[in-house]
Amino acid sequence: MSSITPAGVQAGTQGGGGGEPRRPGRVSLGGLSLNLRASGIYIAFALIVVLFSVLTDGALLTPQNISNIIVQNSYVLILAIGMILVIIAGHIDLSVGSVVAVTGALAAVLMVNMGLPWPLALALTVLAGGLIGAWQGYWIAYFGIPAFIVTLAGMLLFRALTLTVLGNRGIGPFPDQVRTLANGFTSGYLGNVGLGALGGADLFSLLIGVVAIAGMVTAQWRSRVARAGYGQSVEPMALFALKMAAGAAVILFLVVQLARFHNLPWVLVLLAILVLAYSLMANRTVFGRQIYAIGGNLQAAVMSGVKVKKVVFWIFVNMGVLSAIAGIIFAGRLNQAGPTAGNSFELDAIAAAFIGGAAVQGGVGKVVGAITGGLIMAVINNGMSLIGSPSERVMLVKGAVLLAAVAFDVWTKRRAGAAG
Prior knowledge:
By secondary structure, the protein is mostly helical. The protein has one domain: ABC transporter involved in vitamin B12 uptake, BtuC. It is built from 16 helices and four strands. The chain has helices at residues 6-12, 36-55, 63-88, 96-113, 118-142, 147-166, 176-183, 203-229, 237-261, 266-284, 286-296, 298-303, 308-334, 345-355, 367-386, 391-419; strands at 26-29, 32-35, 192-194, 200-202. It has a two-stranded antiparallel ribbon. A two-stranded antiparallel sheet has the order 3-4. Strand 3 and strand 4 (200-202) form a beta hairpin. The longest helix is centred in the last third of the chain and has 29 residues, at 391-419.
């Protein structure tokens, strides 16, 4: 099977499998060259957090509120992981909200009405999500219908199926294990340690934070070495060290705050596993490079031997699986499956991907960026709720942020074109 090398991706993308061949929007700060396109989202996230921390008199960053932000938005972040891959490949999925609803309803029927053991019910639900993704992937990849049309039809079909299964009632309650996955926290396995003015925290949670920091630094260093080995430009060592230090500080702060509340939420553990797995897949595997190649330059990908139809098919299968996982988490959090579950989730997932740096034309985006985009919306929602803003003002701000993110993407492309 032909593979796409980093050099091959470089010809067709702007930010594929770990490299950034074209680097528009660079600025110099104190002699350091900064790629605004790659780093702007993280700078914007930091500024938004600081702004709402000030506006809420620090309430935004209290241990309980940080935990609430993660737990209450976990399903959108899961969907964003799958959506970023769909968008990188140059497609869109409008059906994920309805798939969340129908898979949550299926899980409820299997566990509550039929009395199946919860592990078997969850496995069957995830399998059903994969089959839904395969159904849509077939029409898109092999029949040639645009993804917008197929998933728009899926949004209607699976919402109708949800209403057929549930009617106007919810099904619950869910088993304790499922509720724990959605709302529960890890136990204090290694005891509590003192942190001075910060109070006590679970040692196990702190060790998880240290491991996460070590993994982040190792992955970023390997990526830097790989780019340098292929002759691609890399940031100065001082800037790299600054980025690693900032990332480590953020991770350690979050872990300490969570450990001070009820330790790590189980959904955060699940999210960390998914982010790590999908980041490695996107950056380190042939399949991941093929996704970037398809979105960056479809003709070049075909000429390079990429089996485009097969790759696109499996992207939508994956989206169905992640939608089923999100459906289980959402239903477990509410402790019932309801007919209105998943409303507008597709818009939140798409917005997270674009705010997180995905390009409208495809070929650009990162899993971590999509998670950051989802967290930006979560912080805006939570922060404006804490200061008592009405819902219409929240929607106004979120819409403005989305428009600004896409406008920035278009602006950097135009600058790159003018420079070339």
